[in-house]
Amino acid sequence: MVGEVQYGGKITDNLDRELFNAYCQIWLTDAVFQQNYCFNQQVTEFHYHIPDASEHSRFLEYIGKMPGNDTPAIFGLHPNADLTFRLKESNEMIDTLLDIQPKDAGGGGSGKSREEEVKDKLQKDLIPMLPIDYVELEIKQ
């Protein structure tokens, strides 16, 4: 029922609804009523569990300690999923920036288009910042 009710909120299409319902089937079970139930047994930087408390303030305190961004492992995904997401998000931002740039006929001193200048800057500044074990082919797979 929680998954179907949420469908009218932030979930905007059938695939989102199906995914959310799949997570609901995994996480919203009778096991959550057991003491010290943990949502994810993997070792992560934050231990997701239901607080052993009855006061509203203690729940709010626990919620306040939750991280702002979850690692892919929490959702059963490979750690490279975060790299893939960030790379896609960065590419979309760069594409948007290039699309909104003024299109003038005059050239700069380098003779390169703005797109070429951005690509050169990416190769020079950002690509060296990628992790050593970053393999683009593995991420695409």
Question: How is this structure best described in words?
Answer:
With 141 residues, the chain is mainly alpha-helical. The chain has 2 domains: 2-70, no CATH class; 80-140, no CATH class. 48% of the residues lie in helices and 0% in strands. The protein is built from 6 helices and no strands. The chain has helices spanning 2-6, 14-27, 56-65, 80-100, 114-126, 136-140. It is elongated. The two termini are 34 Å apart.
Brief characterization of the structure:
48% of the residues lie in helices and 0% in strands. The protein is built from 6 helices and no strands.
Helix content: 40-55%
Count the strands?
0
Spatial extent as radius of gyration: 22 Å
What structural class do you assign from the helix and strand content?
mainly alpha
| Approximate strand percentage | under 5%
